[in-house]
Design brief:
The complex is a heterodimer of chains A (87) and B (588).
Chain A lengths: L4 H32 L8 E2 L2 E2 H31 L6
Antiparallel strand pairs in A: 1-2
Helix pairs in contact in A: 1-2
Chain B lengths: L2 H22 L5 H6 L6 H12 L2 H14 L4 H25 L4 H8 L3 H33 L4 H51 L4 H4 L11 H11 L12 H17 L1 H4 L8 H37 L16 H8 L3 E3 L18 H6 L7 E3 L3 H9 L4 H39 L5 H24 L8 H22 L5 H23 L26 H19 L5 H11 L11
The chains are: A mainly alpha (87), B mainly alpha (588).
């Protein structure tokens, strides 16, 4: 790794960017849509209640799964691009 | 065949399976014992994490909590799943790259300090022991209800089974029994849910049923539930709440607490590669979500079922007569988890929320107080009986509840025993110990941990109900920030990390003890544990997130005021960030 310190830094920055983006969505669906912004979504009905309730009991969990798989898939690409993937 | 025989068959059959797996997967080295040799497939590991994570609390209690609190208790659903996003991105891959056996070992090496390692060991043991008490107590409840044995005897049987596969097989035995236990518990949880969803909404998929139309009333099922319970003085099920700050902090505490619990983290050490650690977090959440998406459906449907059982002619008509109560109420009355007192002596079961606001209505109907107290923990266990499902489903639920409790207990016991044998004995007391000696020490500490956990499960201390707050508070305020800073900052040093952990931990414990009593001793609380007394409306259950912030802040300030970590530590941080060269988890 020592010889590629410039690339190593870029690799780490790419990882941090991906994490940051993922955590914004993570916070938006759970703390946002399901809790703080629920009154704003109250007008969107879904099966006897509103969209905020759906995010609180189902939507955020489904989003979390998508976020982790997306992260794992993107990181594999990034690992390969920077040549730090495992053999 | 009697119900008792069916239950014995299911539970006994599952136990034989676990022991069979243990004999097949005997541990031969410390690497086998601590990290299952490091060769577990990510999907297999995801399933094992699912069983490791989903405890008696998830299986038995969570649906009951949601049924009682409705929307307000959605925190449990989001909190206990959202932590996996943090694990997958902030901890698991890097700790896997580090490639050692335990969580305190990383903290000790990264912060080049035996004291830091010791603080981590203490946090780990307190969090895990408090957590394991709940598992053993949960196993005791399942035994006493389904196998009609004394709870203590039931616990001892459960302890012997765990002893066989955990002591013999270590992480290797635990991994493969957890896979089997996951299959048992998820089948047991979903089958009754599918039946109930079909009965009430005609939709066989419970998470979809939750937002479908109730067949009998033609209304959306959540509307119907809201109507029935508000008629009886309860809050609307889907109602929004006022104290959003507390809900946010409670959810956040559960999330970072989840990510900081050592028994979950060590499961990520068992996969061959860094990329596998990321994938297994995803698979773990898929397997966990199968239960967590079913639970809110079970919660609302079971609550509606309970209400229509008591008020078969609708809430405007009189409730059922006590003598005409269904068999499942009789069965659970025996355990004391359902209690009836005929306050107005009319021979009927008045179930309602006796608040001052509802008083005029209650008086007009001649009601003199709520007469039926249903412990919310029985909701899942009684579910098949409430919905009149066949006997084998009840046997399955018994085996499922035990699988959930035992799989989590085994994971916790492994975390405890590896902290004792690897971090305390090999790390501090006797570094020269041979591998054989360490393996023996690990087995002995596991055995001791099982005996202690069984004793505490049979004689749960008065604070058993508070342990969730304690375990998550400790993990959130001490372990999670230390681990995260160890990976994402090269600047945080030994002094900063120790100061951070101790201040986060102290802050959290003091806030919990002020409201819950010092060391949970009754009568020693300084303030009543009610929302009016909480600082900014923050409940003691939600304080872990604030404790984590304290930990981060103190660690940064102290680190910046003291010298930088040595070069080799900065290189260590550098190396955990890049996957190449992970190799198997190893000793030194």
């Amino acid at each position: 790794m020592a010889g590629h310190s410039y690339d190593a830094e870029k690799y780490w920055k790419a990882n941090l960017r991906l994490i940051f983006g993922s955590l914004i969505i993570w916070a938006l669906v759970s703390y946002g849509f399901a809790i703080l912004l629920r009154p704003l979504l109250a007008g969107i009905p879904i099966g006897g209640t509103d969209l905020g309730f759906w995010f609180a009991q189902q939507g955020s969990i489904l989003t979390f799964i998508a976020l982790i798989f997306h992260y794992a898939w993107r990181m594999n690409k990034i690992d390969e691009k920077f040549g730090v993937h495992e053999e | 065949m009697s119900q008792f025989a069916i239950n014995i068959m299911f539970v006994g059959g599952s136990f034989l399976l676990y022991i069979g797996i243990a004999i097949w997967a005997k541990a031969g080295s410390t690497s086998d014992f601590y990290v299952a040799g490091g060769g577990v497939h990510p999907v297999t590991n995801g399933m094992a994490i699912g069983a490791d994570w989903m405890s008696a609390a998830s299986f038995i209690s969570m649906a009951g909590l949601i049924a009682a609190g409705g929307y307000a208790n959605s925190s449990f659903l989001m909190g206990w799943t959202g932590g996996y996003v943090l694990l997958a991105m902030l901890l698991a891959p890097y700790l896997r790259k580090f490639g050692k056996f335990t969580v305190p070992e990383f903290i000790g090496d990264r912060f080049y300090s035996k004291n830091a390692r010791l603080v981590a060991v203490i946090c780990l043991i307190v969090a895990s022991v408090t957590y394991v008490i709940g598992q053993m107590a949960g196993a005791g409840v399942a035994f006493s209800r389904f196998l009609e044995v004394d709870a203590t005897l039931g616990l001892i049987i459960a302890a012997i089974v765990v002893f066989v596969y955990a002591v013999l097989g270590g992480m290797k035995g635990i991994t493969y029994t957890q896979v089997a236990q996951y299959c048992v518990l998820i089948t047991a949880y979903t089958i009754p849910a599918v039946f109930i969803s079909m009965q009430l909404t005609g939709n066989p998929i419970p998470p979809l049923g939750l937002f479908s139309t109730h067949i009998d009333s033609g209304m959306p099922i959540l509307d119907k539930l809201n109507q029935v319970i508000t008629d009886l003085g309860f809050n609307e099920y889907t109602a929004d709440i006022d104290n959003k700050l507390n809900m946010v902090l409670f959810t956040l505490s559960l999330m970072i607490g989840t990510a900081g619990l050592p028994h979950v983290i060590i499961r990520f050490f068992t996969v061959p590669k860094v990329a596998d650690a990321r994938w297994s977090a995803g698979w773990a959440l898929v397997f966990i979500a199968l239960l967590y998406l079913t639970a809110p459906a079970v919660a609302s449907m079971a609550r509606l079922n309970l209400m229509t059982t008591i008020y078969p002619e609708g809430t405007a008509a009189e409730p059922i007569e006590y003598d005409a109560r269904p068999a499942w109420i009789r069965d659970w009355e025996v355990t004391g988890l359902i209690q009836f007192t005929d306050k107005n002596e009319d021979g009927r079961i008045q179930l309602y929320n006796d608040t001052p606001e509802f008083e005029p209505q209650a008086e007009a109907r001649g009601w003199e107080g709520n007469e039926l107290v249903v412990n919310r923990d029985i909701l899942v266990l009684a579910n098949p009986e409430i919905a009149n499902l066949p006997g084998w489903v009840i046997g399955l639920i018994a085996a499922g509840g035990l699988a959930a409790a035992l799989s989590t207990a085994a994971g916790l016991l492994l975390a405890i025993s590896s902290a004792v044998s690897h971090d305390l004995i090999k790390g501090s007391i006797n570094p020269a110990i041979t591998e054989k000696g360490e393996l023996l020490a690990a087995r002995i500490s596991m055995a001791v941990a099982i005996v202690v956990a069984t004793y505490l499960g049979a004689n749960p201390p008065g604070f058993a109900a508070q342990v969730v707050a304690l375990a998550f508070g400790i993990a959130a305020a001490s372990l999670f920030p230390a681990l995260m800073m160890g990976i994402f900052s090269k600047r945080v040093n030994n002094t900063g990390a120790i100061a951070g952990m101790l201040s986060g931990l102290t802050f959290t414990l003091v806030y919990i003890f002020v409201y819950k009593g010092w060391l949970f001793i009754p009568g020693t609380a300084n303030l009543p544990d009610t929302p009016e007394n909480w600082v900014l409306g923050i409940s003691p259950l939600s304080i872990g997130a604030v404790g984590a912030v304290v930990n981060f802040a103190v660690a940064f300030v102290v680190s910046n005021a003291t010298e930088e970590p040595p070069v080799e530590i900065q290189e260590l941080v550098e190396s955990v960030r890049y996957p190449r060269g992970a190799g198997q988890a190893h000793d030194h």
